[in-house]
Design brief:
Blueprint (H helix, E strand, L loop, with lengths): L1 E5 L12 H14 L3 E4 L2 E2 L8 H18 L2 E4 L2 E3 L4 H6 L11 E5 L6 H13 L3 E4 L6 H5 L3 H8 L2 E5 H5 L4 H12 L5 E3 L12 H12 L1 H21 L1
Parallel strand pairs: 1-2, 2-4, 3-5, 5-6, 6-7, 7-8, 8-9
Helix pairs in contact: 1-2, 9-10
């Protein structure tokens, strides 16, 4: 499996709090069958500062741990979308997913459908591929069942969290995530793991849920094959 949305990089946001926790998270991920992780620290104006020098320094230290564990890691960002997003990406103030054209786009629970549409179009016109993260959290998607289809037709990708699929985020979140898979509009499942406690990596459990309900071909597509498109671009850049 490949995890493109993960907060195991230590000391940079509300994810891992130490290099020791990072190592535990990487070991746990490897045990579940994850081969590649894109560490994606938060950027959110007024909440999470993306200190790129600190992030890159911590990433290099984490890389040594990852090599020991036997897992491949790359650097990205979970960007809480704002009006400066394209400018910040173009000026390299934050990393894209492994410095490719893929971008993790996060919204607030109450972000309007209009703003989501506009920001996705802005990213696409600038040459990026938006990966809309944990869509099961957004009121705009829950209210408009056509929105995942509209976003995918425009060129964005839809990501759901493994914890939602496993049921750890509640029945409603699980049901919605399962419905996206059933409708063929879930492109990628990722962990969004933050720690080894209440927000741990649940990719292995979620894979079993999807495999049992939809078959291994579907599970492999959204846990491995589709996210590998990003890894392939990283390796080919």
């Amino acid at each position: 499996m490949i995890d493109i949305h993960n907060h195991s990089l230590y000391g940079v946001d509300d994810g891992s709090d130490s290099i020791e926790t990072t190592e535990k998270m990487l070991i746990d991920a490897r045990t579940q069958g994850i081969s590649d992780i894109i560490m994606s620290p938060h950027f959110r104006h007024g909440m999470f500062r993306y200190d790129i020098e600190k992030i890159e320094d911590h990433f290099e230290k984490a890389r040594a741990v990852a090599d020991k564990v036997g897992i491949n890691i790359y650097l990205g960002c979970e960007y809480h979308v704002d009006t400066d997003m394209v400018s910040n990406l173009k000026n390299h103030h934050v990393h894209t997913e492994g410095d490719t054209d893929y971008v993790l786009a996060e919204y607030s629970h109450d972000t309007s459908e209009e703003f989501i549409n506009t920001s996705v179009q802005d990213l696409l016109m600038a040459g990026y591929v938006p990966v809309i993260v944990h869509v099961e959290r957004y009121g705009a998607f829950l209210k408009n069942g056509d929105l995942p289809f509209i976003m995918r037709e425009a060129g964005a990708l839809i990501q759901t969290n493994a914890a939602s699929i496993s049921g750890a985020e509640g029945r409603a979140s699980k049901n919605y995530s399962i419905s996206l898979i059933n409708d063929g509009v879930c492109d990628i499942v990722a962990s969004d793991a933050h720690n080894m406690k209440e927000r741990k990596n649940m990719m292995g459990k979620a894979y079993k849920v999807v495999s049992k309900k939809f078959g291994k071909d579907t599970a492999n597509a959204i846990f491995t094959d589709n996210p590998y498109d990003i890894i392939r671009e990283i390796k080919n850049r």
